[in-house]
Design a protein that fits this description.
With 329 residues, this protein is of the alpha/beta class. The protein is built from 10 helices and 10 strands.
């Protein structure tokens, strides 16, 4: 085949013909064959490659031993398991701002049911898991955390009803996150005692990072000109408590359940009465009411992160601290 034929074959997406290196001898010419590896060398290479091939197949086919629900517990668990052969998968990977009406898809159910251990944030956040938790070995990260109560307000037939429930967004306080990390470490050590020393070593590094986060927040937010917030998500109470902030109003606004005219009027009054320079939405939530209030009051709209999805708990928390400082400093 000519070079031009080979090039044309490649252009057309075909596979070039392959010719043997051994050529037919002309009269009086010796046949030259390509050198071949000794059988012993071939056998040795095969033995070296076989475990790699088998390991690759197992890593693709076998489910993770540990399933963690949301970003914070997944990140903490993965950090603690570094240096061990244990694998960790995250169940909730979508960009969500709350899990009130969340439901698992088929692949998520399979991942949860096939895991040896399921790590949950706790405090009622994972009610959507339902019966899965009944049959799974579970590590609850919320043990020992003092829970705050959130108040949900509903309007119906010209009267208001108030419903109090425990706030599950505990990870937004770095101090609570330290407790969560310790709980996960203890649970892993019970499930996999052979790696206890590794878990403990990794916990030290994780706690140091969480302490650095807490110190950064306390230092950055200590001299704010305004310490009052209006948020369009009811999950920032632990963050506010951690850094001595006051949430005046927390509006749970979701698509299809935006703030009413009455609520907007009330919120506009709150912003004006307290001369708030900013109001805060959640990055995955609705901004419609916040935009209305901003136009009426001049308050700027900033976005905070629930740190429940995304790629990094620490990035989300540092973003929140820097955003508050920029908006209220």
């Amino acid at each position: 085949m000519r070079d031009s034929d080979t090039s044309e074959s490649r252009k057309n997406g075909g596979t070039p013909d392959v010719f043997p290196i051994c050529h037919t001898a002309r009269s009086g010419q010796k046949i030259r064959r390509s050198p071949q590896l000794p059988p012993s060398v071939v056998a040795l290479i095969t033995l070296m490659l076989l475990p790699m091939l088998l390991f690759g197949c197992q890593s693709r086919d076998e489910p993770a031993q540990i399933a963690a629900t949301t970003l914070p517990v997944f990140e903490f668990t993965a950090r603690l398991c570094e240096g061990t052969p244990l694998t960790v998968t995250r169940l909730v990977t979508e960009q969500v701002s709350c899990l009130h009406d969340y439901s698992l898809n088929v692949d998520q159910v399979k991942a949860a049911e096939s895991a040896e251990v399921v790590v949950i944030s706790g405090a009622g956040l994972e009610d959507f898991l339902g019966d899965i938790l009944d049959s799974a070995d579970t590590i609850d990260a919320s043990g020992g955390v003092k829970l705050l109560c959130s108040e949900e307000e509903h309007e119906a037939h010209d009267h208001e009803s108030h419903h109090h429930e425990e706030d599950p967004h505990i990870w937004l306080s770095p101090k609570n996150a330290e407790t969560m990390a310790k709980n996960i470490c203890g649970g892993l050590a019970q499930q996999y005692p052979a790696y206890r020393e590794t878990f403990d070593d990794n916990l030290g590094g994780l706690l140091a990072d969480l302490e650095e986060l807490r110190n950064y927040g306390e230092s950055s937010l200590s001299q704010l000109r305004c310490r009052e917030l209006v948020t369009f998500h009811d999950g920032f109470s632990y963050f506010a408590q951690a850094f001595d902030l006051t949430i005046l109003e927390a509006v749970e606004e979701e698509s299809g359940s935006e703030a009413s005219a009455k609520e907007l009027k009330h919120l506009i009054g709150v912003v004006q009465a307290h001369s708030l320079p900013a109001i805060f939405t959640e990055r995955n939530g609705s901004v419609s009411a916040a935009d209305v209030i901003s136009r009426e009051t001049g308050a700027q709209v900033f976005s905070l992160d629930m740190a429940m999805a995304g790629d990094s708990y620490f990035d989300a928390m540092y973003h929140n601290i820097d955003t508050i400082k920029e908006a209220l400093g």
